[in-house]
Amino acid sequence: MWALAxxxxxxxxxxxxxxxxxxxxxxxxxxxxxxxxxLGSMAALGDSVTTAFASCLAPTPxxxxxxxxxxxxxxxxxxxxxxxxxxxxxxxxxxxxxxxxDALAGQARxxxxxxxxxxxxxxxxxxxxxxxxxxxxPVDTFRRQVDDAxxxxxxxxPQARILVASIPDIHRLWEIGHTKDIAVKxxxxxxxxxxxxxxxxxxxxxxARRKAFQERIDAYNSQLVAACKAYGARCxxxxxxxxxxxxxxxxxxxxxFFHPNAAGQNALAKATWLGTPDW
Length: 279
Known about the structure:
The protein is α/β, with parallel strands linked by helices. The protein has helices spanning 2-17, 78-83, 104-113, 125-128, 139-156, 170-177, 181-187, 193-196, 204-231, 241-244, 262-272, and strands spanning 41-46, 90-93, 118-122, 161-164, 235-237.
């Protein structure tokens, strides 16, 4: 029976992987923004949130449910919204499961190769979700790495529109989950220990650690806004919309009580959608 169950999960994973990022990117029509059929290609940069990890039940990426480039029917992604007025739209998802900000420039080069006219960026959770607070990416280093990636986009895709999304409120997951045995058990496997270690502890040191984690996310989000502003008029941040999504436990996967499931991905897509990228 276990063998059959595992085989079923494998089939689910393969089904999720099929068509994961929409049609394959092409070399044309990527430079402009706007609707009316003017946008040829889009790209997503980021981490496991943008790969929609575990959103198709199996503990693997399932980019068809991605808030950004997903082409599945369960999430009203940016890609699906744009496809209505851009029927030839191509999409590529360069996000990587464990990516931190230092991987962003490489992902940006992938977007340049795809000639994307619209690029979404959601990065920073893995910079904070380290084994300890001391291991977290320093704020100035994080900013420099984001700037490096945006510079790649500006040089390679000067006409593209860029959306920089805020980091979701990871601390909220601790707030709503630390009294639930099933969530606590899932977190004990090692996810985001800078925040989620000893989740039921009320010791001052643990409370201080959680506060420091929350403050680091806030600092990263401030730097994302500043980096986008420095980029210029073709970059917009989401105004903190992704961070304000009020996640509940039924919006995250049952595998780890951390990553957004399809409902969570849909909430992120709705929150971060700024309309046709013609800014």
